[in-house]
């Protein structure tokens, strides 16, 4: 478990030694992008109105306070379930050149291919810790696709030491959760057997 | 598209209940119920490996910061669901729906809560956190009573809303129930922000099993079913899921669940229905009990005053 501090723009070289299970803290530009943003880019073929090449996205729908003069304050922000974006992520990464995909929970083989081929990382921020995360958002510098509503808008954030981010897919395409899930499933089968012997209530 | 909402003109007493609820929703958007906080502190002393400790330290610091700033501790403040036991003589029974909807509307602005109501088919966010059927209001009558018990729950999109229910054949038995619950833990539970509170409903159809599983999440994390066999199954599932080793955020660890609560009702002889709802570690459910004069108690939040 090594700790890295990354600042955008992040090159492929910057992340080549980072492996699953390592911890990252991010400084620079991070843009929230979740279901609708992914759908628009991949399914509808729209160009993302924010340049995220060599930067980071966060699968998240924050709580924003709307201030006068089109200004915004980050109240609470944390990741949403990343697996929902799995069906789009490989193409999304390839099209946008995004370097860090931050979210919650595991992602699948498409994202792993993207991380390997386009040199990106998938990372998990411990979800539910939205005020701690908001504290590390220095300011919101832009908002795009606001027609999607607060959760789905692209909020362009300037962050400082945003983390802890646990690396869950690295540039080899290795997936932290694959090994974990194999262990979980093995133990689950043992437990099901054990419990089933004691709950034969229907005779 | 725009969602039309005009605030109702409530009676003086109705407005008083609404205002109490607004304050309560604001507070419990960042203050976890006592049973949940206690359990998390307990787990933070058990999960001492570096990665797990880092997660628990972040959680503890997050709750402290949220309380200090008086803002929601998790950005997904869910869709509000109110599970209500209402006395048939409670004086505001006619106004209750309007009170709950308007309390949600106002709390959304004050807390502030995330606006999470998307109108289906027309597919637009109403941007005010209320919509058709949101907040969800589920009522049970209490005969010969003038009291009310309201359990508000901020039901999140990444934990409890994607619940599952299935009607099994009796031949599959409680062994089948066990598999259904356990499979859900490794497929969905791992991403649902463990340590979880798992609600299991046993009943006769999908909707009764699902509702029981939801009501189970309203019970304290350290409570057990009054039926001995059901309580035994709660213990077995709790130990079994902990043994799977999900740990905080599914990163692995000693504790996967804060508790497993089963609520059971009778079944038709041909079926056994099972429902599973997963509450996340940030389990924001509360309880406010009021009498006809609106004297209130908050049994899940010691020391909180509205």
From TrEMBL, chain A:
<comment type="similarity">
    <text>Belongs to the class-I fumarase family.</text>
</comment>
<protein>
    <recommendedName>
        <fullName>L(+)-tartrate dehydratase subunit beta</fullName>
        <ecNumber>4.2.1.32</ecNumber>
    </recommendedName>
</protein>
<dbReference type="Pfam" id="PF05683">
    <property type="entry name" value="Fumerase_C"/>
</dbReference>
<keyword id="KW-0456">Lyase</keyword>
<dbReference type="InterPro" id="IPR004647">
    <property type="entry name" value="Fe-S_hydro-lyase_TtdB-typ_cat"/>
</dbReference>
<comment type="subunit">
    <text>Heterotetramer of two alpha and two beta subunits.</text>
</comment>
<feature type="domain" description="Fe-S hydro-lyase tartrate dehydratase beta-type catalytic">
    <location>
        <begin position="5"/>
        <end position="178"/>
    </location>
</feature>
<dbReference type="GO" id="GO:0008730">
    <property type="term" value="F:L(+)-tartrate dehydratase activity"/>
</dbReference>
<dbReference type="InterPro" id="IPR036660">
    <property type="entry name" value="Fe-S_hydroAse_TtdB_cat_sf"/>
</dbReference>
From TrEMBL, chain B:
<keyword id="KW-0479">Metal-binding</keyword>
<dbReference type="GO" id="GO:0051539">
    <property type="term" value="F:4 iron, 4 sulfur cluster binding"/>
</dbReference>
<comment type="subunit">
    <text>Tetramer of two alpha and two beta subunits.</text>
</comment>
<keyword id="KW-0004">4Fe-4S</keyword>
<feature type="domain" description="Fe-S hydro-lyase tartrate dehydratase alpha-type catalytic">
    <location>
        <begin position="24"/>
        <end position="287"/>
    </location>
</feature>
<dbReference type="GO" id="GO:0046872">
    <property type="term" value="F:metal ion binding"/>
</dbReference>
<keyword id="KW-0456">Lyase</keyword>
<dbReference type="InterPro" id="IPR004646">
    <property type="entry name" value="Fe-S_hydro-lyase_TtdA-typ_cat"/>
</dbReference>
<dbReference type="GO" id="GO:0008730">
    <property type="term" value="F:L(+)-tartrate dehydratase activity"/>
</dbReference>
<keyword id="KW-0408">Iron</keyword>
<protein>
    <recommendedName>
        <fullName>L(+)-tartrate dehydratase subunit alpha</fullName>
        <ecNumber>4.2.1.32</ecNumber>
    </recommendedName>
</protein>
<comment type="similarity">
    <text>Belongs to the class-I fumarase family.</text>
</comment>
<dbReference type="Pfam" id="PF05681">
    <property type="entry name" value="Fumerase"/>
</dbReference>
<dbReference type="InterPro" id="IPR051208">
    <property type="entry name" value="Class-I_Fumarase/Tartrate_DH"/>
</dbReference>
<keyword id="KW-0411">Iron-sulfur</keyword>
């Amino acid at each position: 478990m090594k700790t890295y501090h990354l600042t955008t723009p992040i090159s492929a070289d910057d992340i080549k030694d980072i492996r699953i299970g390592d911890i990252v803290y991010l400084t620079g530009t991070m843009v929230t992008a979740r279901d609708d943003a992914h759908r628009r880019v991949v399914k509808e073929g729209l160009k993302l109105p924010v340049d995220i090449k060599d930067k980071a996205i966060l699968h998240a729908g924050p709580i924003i306070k709307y201030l006068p003069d089109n200004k915004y304050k980050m109240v609470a922000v944390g990741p949403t379930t990343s697996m929902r974006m799995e069906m789009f992520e490989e193409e999304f990464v390839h099209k946008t050149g995004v370097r860090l995909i931050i979210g919650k929970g595991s992602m699948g083989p498409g994202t792993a291919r993207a991380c390997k081929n386009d040199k990106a990382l998938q990372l998990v921020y411990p979800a539910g810790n939205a005020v701690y995360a908001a504290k590390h958002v220095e300011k919101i510098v832009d908002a795009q696709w606001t027609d999607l509503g607060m959760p789905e808008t692209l909020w362009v954030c300037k962050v400082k030491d945003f983390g802890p981010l646990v690396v869950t897919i690295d540039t080899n395409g290795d997936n932290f959760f694959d090994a974990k899930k194999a262990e979980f499933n093995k133990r689950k089968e043992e437990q099901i057997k054990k419990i089933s012997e004691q709950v034969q209530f229907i005779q | 598209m725009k969602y039309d909402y005009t605030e109702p003109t409530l009676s003086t007493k109705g407005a008083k209940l609404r205002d109490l609820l607004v304050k309560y929703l604001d507070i419990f958007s960042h203050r976890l119920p006592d049973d949940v906080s206690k359990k998390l502190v307990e787990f933070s002393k058990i999960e001492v490996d570096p990665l797990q400790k880092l997660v628990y330290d972040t959680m503890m610091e997050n709750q402290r910061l949220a309380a200090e700033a008086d803002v929601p501790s998790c950005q997904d403040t869910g869709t509000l669901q109110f599970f209500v036991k209402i006395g048939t003589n409670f004086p505001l029974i006619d106004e209750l729906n309007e009170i709950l909807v308007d309390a949600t509307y106002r709390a959304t602005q004050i807390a502030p809560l995330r606006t999470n109501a998307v109108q289906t088919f027309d597919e637009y966010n109403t941007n005010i956190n209320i919509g058709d059927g949101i907040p969800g209001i589920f009522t049970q009558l209490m005969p010969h009573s003038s009291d009310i018990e309201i359990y508000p729950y901020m039901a999140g999109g990444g934990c409890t809303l994607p619940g599952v229910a299935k009607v099994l054949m009796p031949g599959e038995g409680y062994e089948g129930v066990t598999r259904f619950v356990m499979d859900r833990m490794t497929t969905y539970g791992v991403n649902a922000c463990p340590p979880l509170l798992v609600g299991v409903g046993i009943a006769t159809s999908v909707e009764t099993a699902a509702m029981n599983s939801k009501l189970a999440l309203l019970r304290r994390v350290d409570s057990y079913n009054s039926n001995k066999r059901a309580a035994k199954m709660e213990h077995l599932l709790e130990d079994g899921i902990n043994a799977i080793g999900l740990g905080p955020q599914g990163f692995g660890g000693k504790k996967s669940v804060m508790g497993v609560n089963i609520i059971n009702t009778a079944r038709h002889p041909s079926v056994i229905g099972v429902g599973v709802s997963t509450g996340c570690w940030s389990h924001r459910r509360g309880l406010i009990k009021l009498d006809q004069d609106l004297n209130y108690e908050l049994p899940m939040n010691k020391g909180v005053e509205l």
